[in-house]
Write a structure and sequence with these properties.
The protein is an alpha+beta fold. The chain has eight helices and 15 strands. A five-stranded antiparallel sheet has the order 12-11-10-13-14. It is globular and about 60 Å long.
């Protein structure tokens, strides 16, 4: 395959390196570099215009960003899981907070079946900031001004989801051919297991649970065309795993922080390049990240 390897990832050094700093517009130089490239290394969170250029030129690229550019966020993820026939907690989608509260208040069967309390999730944001445990419709309405229904890279709205007490939570980090699982748990008095909300984590847990969680994350990866993501799952007591959400920009504490993550990311990129018949040594960590 002719051409240079082109990197837009600021942590990776290739033969041609272009950075989209401060939202600079794409130029003719970008178009020429992409068209001539043997392969393109994209940022973990890719701009739509850059992906459109790479796709139009038909260049091999890593990671594939199609899902996070169309079905990102809580609403988009739930639609994706349903469309792929993959298991998730019982969920109902709404366009806005008032519609959700009114449906709950009116005893709409689909919402009543979720029970109470239930989990309300706004479409966007991350790290557990837009997720709430609510006991009744009035509490849901009171989230006006706090629960955000907008999502930059996916459909807007919110979901109401069955709350499953006592469920174990797992994060599976997918890096091309590699997958690593670790368990998370909430801080006392908190229902969210996000590390940013005070939760704890460990890479030690039941082998059967690990195998089931990895298998479900791999099914999602294959079906949705995902190269790199943090996939959150829960295990209801005595049951198999259910998908919660996909995180394309995820915390790295469980991976040894950024210093531990970047070398593993480089390994994933090199394995992908090798699969294309390209020399993996043509890409290295950027000097600023050594």
């Amino acid at each position: 395959m002719p051409g240079a390897i082109l990197s837009y990832h600021t942590g990776l050094q290739a033969e041609v390196n272009l950075a989209l700093i401060s939202q600079r517009p794409l130029t003719q130089a970008d178009a020429q570099a992409v068209a001539a490239a043997a392969a393109v290394l994209l940022p973990l969170v890719c701009r739509p215009d850059l992906y459109a250029l790479v796709a139009a030129c038909g260049r091999p690229h890593f990671p594939r960003p199609a899902v996070h550019l169309s079905l990102d966020g809580k609403v988009g993820n739930c639609r994706l899981f349903a469309g792929l026939g993959l298991p998730q907690p019982e969920t109902r989608e709404f366009a806005d907070l008032e519609a959700a509260a009114a449906a709950w208040e009116a005893g709409e069967p689909g919402v009543a079946a979720l029970g109470a309390p239930l989990v309300a999730k706004g479409a966007g944001d991350g790290m557990g900031r837009n997720v709430f445990l609510v006991q009744k419709p009035g509490e849901l309405r009171a989230l006006a001004g706090r629960l955000e229904t907008g999502c930059a890279r996916g459909p807007a709205g919110l979901v109401l989801q069955r709350y499953i007490p006592g469920a174990a939570e797992m994060r599976v980090v997918l890096l091309h051919q590699e997958a690593q699982a670790y368990w998370r748990w909430p801080a006392p008095g908190e229902f969210r297991a996000n590390l940013s909300q005070g939760g704890g984590w460990s890479d030690q847990g039941p082998a059967e649970q690990r195998g089931a969680g990895l298998a479900l994350a791999r099914r999602l990866q294959a079906a949705a065309g995902i190269d790199v993501a943090g996939v959150d799952l829960i295990f209801p007591p005595g049951q198999g795993p259910l998908l919660l959400e996909i995180n394309f920009f995820f915390g790295r504490k469980g991976l040894g922080g950024s210093q531990g993550f970047l070398p593993r990311y480089l390994t994933a990129v090199r394995a992908w390049l090798k699969g294309l018949g390209l020399d993996p040594a043509r890409v290295s960590l950027a000097e600023d990240d050594l």
